[in-house]
Design brief:
single chain, 316 residues, 2 domains, 6-stranded mixed beta sheet, globular, binds zinc ion
């Protein structure tokens, strides 16, 4: 039996609330350069907390049940974005330990040795020598690197500036900065196609996340459609199965994705899609714009408190 608080806040049926959690990575060991990503130890208590307090579903099942009013009490979905190799190696065994499902959104062009632009920058800043880190020729500012805290602050600032650069330019600049700081072009950061097949065969739900992870709102509609479609087709060809759920890259409604992209997702045959709007989903949510929630608290008590506040604040 689930604890009363979550059942009371989120009853079964037509007035049910749906908590969709977003994760990206689960680190085998804590990495001071990645203070916002949970370690295996932290994810272990998060997964245990979620398993004890929520009825965890895959996104496609939750989407079906939110529409026909049959969500269980305290319904939740665990999602992972992008396709990091640690999702299979570290997160999946922990999810299995607690018997809870998860949905993994994969940007296909980074499978088999790729690295996303944000990770290019993080690794460049990690590798850079202490002292001046001057990116003014890329219009990205100049920084002084000292300790790890200064490096984290520096890459956060750079990522914030570079995020809304034109998509191809963003990729090229990130690669050049990485190259200048001896970050190799190939990496084992993301899953291989074989690992993705293993994750799928083990029972994970796989969803699409475009091909090259552009901010869709910055693309013209033809390119946006092609990105969403290519990601779906590539996953279907790897896995030999229809891909039914989608996550918008970056995912802030009105800024990164819009109603137009929801129409595209629907036209391509997806059954549901998720944004990064911070809210609980409910029967009144749009099925192609379901909100999600990033659980960033790093202590069990704060994590529990935030989960309760999150559901309470979504009662409307
Ligand atoms: Zn993503």
């Amino acid at each position: 039996m689930l604890p009363l608080i979550f059942r009371a806040l989120s009853p079964a049926g037509v007035s049910a609330k749906l908590n969709i959690f977003i994760f990206h990575r689960v680190l085998p060991q804590p990495d001071p350069m990645l203070p916002f990503e949970p370690s295996a130890e932290q994810f272990n208590w998060m997964a245990r907390f979620i398993a004890r307090n929520f009825n965890v579903l895959t996104l496609s099942e939750a989407a079906r049940r939110i529409q026909n009013g049959t969500l269980p009490a305290a319904a939740a979905v665990i999602t992972f974005d992008d396709g990091y190799a640690d999702n299979l190696e570290v997160a999946w065994p922990i999810l299995n330990r607690y018997g809870i499902p998860a949905t993994f959104f994969i940007a296909t062009s980074f499978l088999d040795g790729g690295r996303m632009w944000n990770d290019e920058i993080i690794e460049a800043v990690r590798n850079a020598e202490a002292g001046q880190f001057d990116l003014s020729k890329f219009s990205l500012g100049a920084y002084t690197l000292t300790d790890t805290v200064s490096r984290v602050r520096t890459y956060e600032t750079i990522l914030g500036k570079l995020k809304y650069f034109e998509h191809v330019k963003r990729t090229q600049i990130a690669r050049e900065i990485a190259f200048l700081n001896h970050v190799p072009g190939q990496s084992e950061l993301m899953m291989t196609s074989t690992e993705l097949k293993q994750l799928h065969a083990a029972g994970a739900e796989i969803g699409a996340h475009t091909q090259t992870h552009p901010i869709l709102e910055l693309l013209d509609d033809d390119k946006a459609f092609a990105e969403i479609e290519a990601g779906k087709i590539e996953l279907e060809s790897i896995l030999g199965e229809a891909i039914n759920v989608f996550a918008y890259p970056n995912g802030v409604p009105g800024k990164d994705c819009s109603v137009r992209h929801g129409e595209m997702v629907k036209k391509l045959g997806f059954q549901a899609a998720v944004t990064t709007e911070q809210a609980c989903a409910s029967a009144s949510s749009k099925i192609f714009h379901l909100p999600r929630f990033t659980p960033w608290d790093r202590t069990p008590l704060r994590f529990a408190a935030r989960s309760i506040l999150h559901i309470r604040s979504s009662r409307h």
